[in-house]
Amino acid sequence: MSQLDKDFLWGGAIAANQAEGAYLEGGKGLSLMDVATAGKKGVSRHITDGIQDDVYYPNHEGIDFYHQYKEDLALFEEMGFKCFRTSIAWTRIFPHGDEDEPNEEGLKYYDDLFDEMIKRGMEPVVTISHYEMPLYLAQKYGGWANRQLIDFYLNFCEVIFKRYKGKVKYWMTFNEINSVVFMPEIAGVLDRTQDDFKQRSYQAAHHQFLASAKAVQLGHAIDPENKIGCMVLTLVKYPLTAKPEDVLLAEEKMRYGTFAFTDIQVRGHYPRYIQKYVERQGIKVDIKPGDLEEMKKGCVDYIGFSYYSSSAATTDPHVETTGGNLVSGVKNPYLPTSEWGWQIDAKGLRYILNRFYERYEIPMFIVENGLGYNDQIDENGYVKDDYRIEYLRQHIIEMKKAVLEDGVELIGYTPWGCIDLVSAGTGEMSKRYGFIYVDRDDLGNGSLKRSKKKSFDWYKQVIASQGEDL
Ligand code: BG6
Question: What is the CA radius of gyration of the chain?
């Protein structure tokens, strides 16, 4: 095996809403995540109707990255990060989302943030929309089910593409775009009790695909150097047995859960299996003349994806199930399971890298991967997170095999939550992913002090050796 390229982008990833806090500072408006309650293991969060007294909203303060980003970036630099992924909070730039003119203070904040990253040798990798759309757009317009959202989003894109031209080259249009069908609330499609909920969700998906394709075209026109990717949550499913029914079911779940989204964004059209699937659901998506042509013109440059775990699929109803990111599955008896029910499967990373590459032959970017763990800090303020090191080590080994033995093209690797942050799924702080511990608990107590975990020095050595010293 030879080595990964010198310019391979090692780094880490966060999202604005889970880290920045300062939810009303700098002219920021409320985002959907500002009204997401704190859940806990096995209990999902929910979106309240505006901010309610006596409810704790963990994203309001996050980990105060908004104020402490310089110190945090200094720590990332110490680890040797070549890139850093974050998102631009839409509500810092357009507090309601439908304004014509952007908020200068918000734009200035990201100017400073990107300048600081670049100064410290990190390539910014930016998610344009990471689960944090303006609340106003959800309440007043019905979220992405409303076609007007496309124009609001493109206005946002135009402003940031122009403003950060020359600073940001790597973009992703929507974080985990497949969440729009699994958790439509995240796209501002609210109220599951209504009969038309599914209809609105699928309509929202069409609008996001179209918005993404138009954003790709716009981003390329503003700066031909831009590399604009999709971002999908990979829901890897294995057949539980060699029974043909299980094999077909697992494949079907891969198709509808993951590949449909990359097929549409990489190839620029709705595959026939999706058209049939939507028909079978009795849903009629309103596709206007010209939409399909626009989608064809806006194919992405690379596939960004998150990978945490895999699960199994079977037609047998009498089997044990397990949790997972947004979607649960059938428990695979060959894999260990995290405290949150996510099954740990490093080989699944090699599997999905190969499945994507066989299908599309375009570059990929692993923009999320990691282990959520309830770290315990010792009396010296240290976290000995050998379990996290082991998780990441195994995933990096498989990633390297995919690149160096199987020949897939990979731009980089940014483990999720490189500094502890608020969990998207549960709102907990105790579901930690970081190399850096943040002193804050699930109720919002703590000094927010940062300290290095054992994995900090380990990852530093991994980057310094280009993935050789694991
Ligand atoms: C991805 C999201 O789904 O998984 C992140 O893009 C999220 O925002 C991450 O934090 C891990 O999920 P969780 O629920 O453990 O925070």
Answer: 21
User: Ligand 1 mean position to 234 CA, how many Å?
Assistant: 12
**Ligand 1 mutation target, pool 129, 416, 432, most atoms within 8 A of CB:** 416
Residue 234: closest CA among 211, 215, 209, 253: 253
Summarize pLDDT for 59-91 with one digit per residue, the tens.
999 999 999 999 999 999 999 999 999 999 999
**Among the atoms of ligand 1, which is closest to the Cα of residue 431?**
15
Q: Structural domain boundaries of the chain?
A: 9-464
Q: Which one of 176, 185, 294, 428 is the catalytic residue? A: 176
Q: What is the pLDDT of residues 375-402, one digit of tens each?
A: 999 999 999 999 999 999 999 999 999 9
Note the pTM of the prediction, 2 decimals.
Answer: 0.98
Assign domain 9-464 to a CATH class.
alpha beta
**E strand map for 173-281:** 227-233, 236-239
**Got the DSSP string for 374-438?**
-----TTS----HHHHHHHHHHHHHHHIIIIIT---EEEE--BTSB----TTT--SSSB--SEEE
